[in-house]
Design brief:
By secondary structure, the protein is α+β, with helices and mostly antiparallel strands. It is built from three helices and four strands; from the N terminus they run αβαββαβ. The model has no long low-confidence stretch (mean pLDDT about 85).
Length: about 90
């Protein structure tokens, strides 16, 4: 009976989903020059799986992105903006 209980606990631990940490990254998007640019950048970032929130700071030419690091990373975020026509870099 103890072996069965231990097996159930082990199986539950193995099959449990990996929980990622919520992280925030700030991207510098220098190509945003008009009022519609932030809309395009926000749409591109919002389509990335794991992105929870995107705030565009047009006056600073930045995008602040909150995401689940188990589902995506900053390289994917940079690729999303670049593919939409707005190359970006991660600010430190």
């Amino acid at each position: 009976m103890k072996n069965l209980a231990a097996l159930i606990v082990l199986a539950t631990a193995i099959s449990a989903p990996a929980w990622g940490a919520t992280k925030t990254a700030t991207l510098s998007v220098s190509g945003m020059t008009c009022a519609t640019c932030p809309i395009t950048v926000k749409k591109a970032l919002s389509k990335v799986p794991g992105v929870e929130k995107t705030t565009i700071l047009f006056d600073k030419k930045e995008a602040v992105v909150t995401f689940d690091d188990a589902k995506t990373n900053t390289q994917v975020l940079v690729s999303a903006t670049t593919d939409a026509g707005y190359p970006s870099t991660v600010k430190n």
